[in-house]
Q: What sequence folds into this?
């Protein structure tokens, strides 16, 4: 594919790329979670019987990408083999990308530039700039813990962008990205093939993969969970049994697709240690004609989630809606969980059905993809966010509490609308907050007021006080 060069305005340029990339809506995918896949865009491009033959079919290069240490246990070991036109190593040296990106953090062990607070925080949706901004430039870190240097912890970012990445690919040497688009589709070219990801879906792009993100709908916004500690996996189901929650066959991985030829001036932007570096090469990194392995990107439609919950009284903890998890070395304790609050029936009797008042040793970051979250009658908007850190009290707002209690015990089955979808990034590691997020004009200084009017309903009546030694 020849270089797509254009000095025209963003809109015209955007259209030309849409034309060039038509077909994202009709893509085929491979189904399954954690499978050992194989895909070839040219028949016979995968070598028989071995990974690294002296000469590969069609004169391709063999290249392995290892997502885990060579010696990781077999059940955890992740790697894939590419068969590509030119190997990734064929590039000029990396230099710090200019201008420097000022709003990314990869090391939270350094106090500088971050703040801590136990206060409940909430942000309104950010505005999307009118100036040309692609996915990389549109990223900004909200909070996180740990450090990409010691490969432990996580960062939560958001993005607000309006333009497709041009003649460039992004690669992340710090962690896996789980992207939750909230507005606008993502058309993603990867070394493994192409994906279309719409609001309501998520995509996981693991450590090291090179990818380019186009924004076919123009102004776009979303959330990103970056994990330094390992890779996402499906949660164990325990007594639920073999079926339920996110079903393995609903995870979709791209099929091989490539673009060859000279592509002068192509830039690979590598996030490394929280900073961005750039190297030039004269070909597209999306030149993989065939690949096989179990280390590959995937997407998932959150509307396919099969929720479980209490069916008589009370309700389960939010962990019952875990889609994906990155476990820590401590049993049952996650570095991060990705949890959703999907459409579902609430049927519990004599139960306060909305989320309970809560303090948690885990820290909870929430976002809203669309609709209205069941725990907040107002103020928590699609594209907005909230953060309730370790042991910070939180719960439904005053209006929701009063309405629920006023409805009394005569509760009928109630379906949470299919038009709403909220999610949570939950972590055992307490986050620090970037100063630009903490001082953002979009932060809601009145968030605390949603609870401040909760009044006492306590009425001792004629009850005798027990354990009164006076
Ligand atoms: Fe909570």
A:
């Amino acid at each position: 594919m020849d270089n797509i060069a254009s000095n025209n305005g963003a809109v015209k340029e955007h259209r030309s790329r849409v034309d060039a990339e038509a077909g994202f809506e009709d893509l085929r995918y491979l189904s399954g979670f954690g499978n050992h896949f194989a895909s070839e865009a040219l028949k016979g491009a995968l070598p028989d019987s071995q990974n690294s033959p002296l000469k590969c079919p069609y004169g391709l290069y063999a290249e392995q990408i290892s997502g885990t240490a060579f010696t990781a246990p077999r059940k955890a070991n992740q790697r894939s083999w590419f068969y590509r036109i030119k190997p990734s190593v064929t590039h000029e040296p990396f230099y710090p990308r200019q201008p420097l990106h000022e709003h990314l953090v990869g090391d939270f062990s350094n106090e500088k530039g971050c703040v801590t607070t136990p206060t409940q925080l909430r942000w309104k949706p950010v505005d999307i700039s009118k100036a040309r901004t692609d996915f990389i430039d549109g990223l900004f870190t909200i909070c996180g813990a740990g450090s990409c240097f010691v490969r432990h912890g996580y960062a939560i970012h958001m993005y607000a962008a309006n333009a497709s990445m041009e003649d460039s690919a992004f690669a992340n040497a710090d962690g896996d990205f789980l992207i939750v688009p909230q507005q606008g589709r993502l058309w993603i070219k990867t070394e493994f093939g192409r994906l279309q990801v719409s609001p309501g879906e998520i995509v996981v792009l693991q450590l090291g993969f090179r990818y380019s993100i186009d924004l076919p709908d123009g102004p776009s916004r979303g959330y990103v969970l970056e994990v330094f500690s390992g890779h996402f996996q499906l949660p164990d189901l325990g007594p639920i049994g073999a079926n339920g929650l996110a079903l393995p066959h609903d995870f979709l991985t791209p099929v091989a697709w490539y673009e060859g030829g000279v592509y002068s001036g192509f830039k690979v932007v590598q996030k490394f240690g929280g900073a961005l570096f750039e190297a030039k090469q004269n070909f597209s990194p999306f030149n993989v004609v065939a690949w096989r392995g179990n280390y590959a990107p995937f997407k998932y439609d959150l509307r396919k989630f099969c929720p479980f919950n209490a069916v008589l009284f009370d309700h389960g903890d939010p962990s019952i809606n875990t889609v994906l998890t990155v476990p820590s070395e401590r049993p049952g304790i996650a570095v991060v969980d990705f949890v959703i609050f999907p459409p579902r029936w609430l049927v519990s009797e004599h139960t306060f059905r909305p989320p309970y008042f809560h303090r948690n040793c885990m820290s909870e970051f929430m976002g809203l993809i669309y609709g209205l979250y069941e725990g907040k009658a107002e103020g928590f908007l699609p594209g907005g966010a909230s953060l309730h850190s370790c042991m910070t009290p939180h719960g439904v707002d005053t209006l929701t509490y009063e309405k629920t209690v006023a409805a009394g015990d005569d509760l009928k089955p109630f379906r949470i609308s299919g038009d709403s979808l909220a999610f949570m990034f939950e972590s055992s590691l307490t986050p620090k907050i970037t100063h630009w997020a903490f001082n953002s004009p979009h932060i809601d200084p009145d968030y605390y007021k949603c609870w401040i009017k909760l009044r006492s309903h306590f009425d001792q009546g004629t009850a005798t006080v027990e354990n009164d030694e006076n």
In short: The pocket of fe (ii) ion is lined by residues 358, 360, 364, 394 (CB under 6 Å).
